[in-house]
Amino acid sequence: MKHMKIFTFLITLCLISFSVTAQKAKSKNKKVVQKYGCSSEVPVAKMVIEDTTPGRGLADNYYLWDNGKIIYVKFLSGSKSMQDKVKTIAKEWEKYANIKFHFVEVGPSHIRINLDDKGGHNSVIGSMAVSVPQDERTMNFDTTDFKTYAAMYRTVLHEFGHAIGLLHEHYSPISGIHWNKTAVYNELKQTQGWTKEMVDVNLFQQYNINYTNGTKYDPRSIMHYPVFARWTTDGYNVNWNNQLSSGDIELISLLYPKNSERQNEVPRFTVSDFTNIKVTNNDAQQGISIYPSFNISTAGKSARVYFIAFFYDAEGNPIMKEGGSYNINKMTATFKSSVLGVNKKLSANKLQPNDFELFIPYSELPVAKGKNNFQVEFRVYLLDDKELKILYQSRRSVFNFIKS
User: Fold this and answer.
1) Does 318 lie in the same domain as 211?
2) Based on the domain organization, do 284 and 251 belong to the same domain?
3) Cα 193 → chain centroid
4) For residue 230, which phi and psi values (nearest 5 degrees)?
5) Residues near 246 by Cβ (< 8 Å), separated by ≥ 6?
6) How distant, in Å, are the alpha carbons of 212, 287, 335, 389 from that of 215?
7) More confident call, 205 vs 267
8) Angle 149-163/80-90 helices, nearest 10 degrees?
9) Residue 164, phi then psi, degrees to nearest 5
10) What is the Cα–Cα distance from 331 to 312, expressed in whole angstroms?
11) Which residue segment(s) compose the domain that 94 sits in?
């Protein structure tokens, strides 16, 4: 099918991960005043698709909340004094965006904040927080970094910017930053304990996908990392930004307009309440049936969604396969896809057991007689024209079965 060929091509061009590892700075230099940057937790889809748009704001429209959304926020830790400061700072976004943060102590929440002395600063991007289990954090603040109110203020604004869908501004393909990458690698390894991969993810990647938000590169954005002159080949620098810029206000007002409808609407789908993956023998069809349990909600525009099970051996190595109907990017997998309309709330294996099945024949796995041990991972992708977005990626589940 044509759409499957497009999907396979795009996923081959992507390196996709559900979250970026939190990066706590491991300072060896006591002169460092604040930990450098944050590790926003976002599915990284590095697409080889050129974007020649002359200017745009850096936000992932696919992970925006509904306009006018009341976002429930809960603290998992921290003193009341610290929590109250975070609340006050976060609500600065409400002045310009048509969203509300409602802080709760009990019950379900969209954003869950951990305040302690480790883990660095990070946040899940936008509505992807819905896919995180209710007992897990979606945002972290390392309070040892809050030596001044200014440091705390800019950090909280930055992380809540991520929480409502904004990306790092220096990712802009039109920033024109001429990095001295060797200098950056060396310094951040020494002062922050960052590996080359961590630097690449947090500083040097660029988003070439056209989100058409219409705003220009903004070096004063609260979402911009500081860039030191010694890190560039031409002396370009950006200082710590302590306030929302006029560009931040313009962008967030476009994304969450108060007196009109959102203009640049895209499919905005969320997967939630994933519980488990049940795997059973299907001897009648000589294969394995997989039953993931989850809910999916749709908004914005209709789009095609892929529900995929990837398979790994007992040691966690991907089972590779060349060609055929049961592989994606050479990995053994089975999938279903469907075009989903908007404003739908659907469930799989919730109200009725075994009402959504993924199936793979024994012949597609290295199955032997007797006991077989494998791992399975469930993922959900949205395909909108040439844009591939990950909606969910489960932990791997171990399963075994006996083939007679």
Assistant:
1) no
2) no
3) 23
4) -70, -10
5) 220
6) 8, 52, 38, 22
7) 267
8) 60
9) -110, 15
10) 9
11) 2-255
User: What's the CA gap between 326 and 95, in Å, rounded?
Assistant: 50
Looking at the fold, whether 11 and 108 belong to one and the same domain comes out as yes
Q: Whose structure tokens read 């950056």?
A: 184
Question: Taking the CB of residue 30, how many other CB atoms lie within 10 A of it?
Answer: 7
End-to-end CA distance of the chain: 35
More confident residue, 70 or 191: 70
- Rounded CA gap, 25 and 28, in Å? 9
- Is residue 263 one of the residues assigned to a domain? no
Q: What is the pLDDT of residues 104-133, one digit of tens each?
A: 999 999 999 999 988 889 999 999 999 999
List the strands of the sheet with 294-299, edge to edge: 268-272, 294-299, 345-348
What is residue 3's three-state secondary structure?
A: helix
- Examine residue 159 and state whether it is found in any structural domain, yes or no: yes
Closest among 302, 319, 301 to 310, alpha carbons compared: 319
Q: Looking at the DSSP assignment, which residues form a beta bridge with residue 317?
A: none
Report how far residue 379's alpha carbon sits from residue 292's, in angstroms, rounded to the nearest whole number: 10
Task: Give the pLDDT confidence of 4-19 residue by residue, as tens digits.
Answer: 555 554 455 443 333 3
Inter-CA distances, 148 with 109, 206, 242, Å: 29, 31, 12
Closest to 43 (Cα-Cα) out of 255, 201, 279: 201
Q: Which two tokens stand for residue 305?
A: 């969604």
The 10s digit of each residue's pLDDT in 216-260 is 889 999 999 899 999 999 999 999 999 999 999 999 999 999 999
pLDDT at position 15 is 37
Nearest residue to 296 via CA among 255, 331, 337: 337
Q: Which pair of structure tokens corresponds to residue 77?
A: 């830790």
Query: Of 258, 223, 241, nearest to 68 (Cα)?
Result: 258
Place of tokens 């609500």: 91
- Quick one: DSSP state of residue 261? -
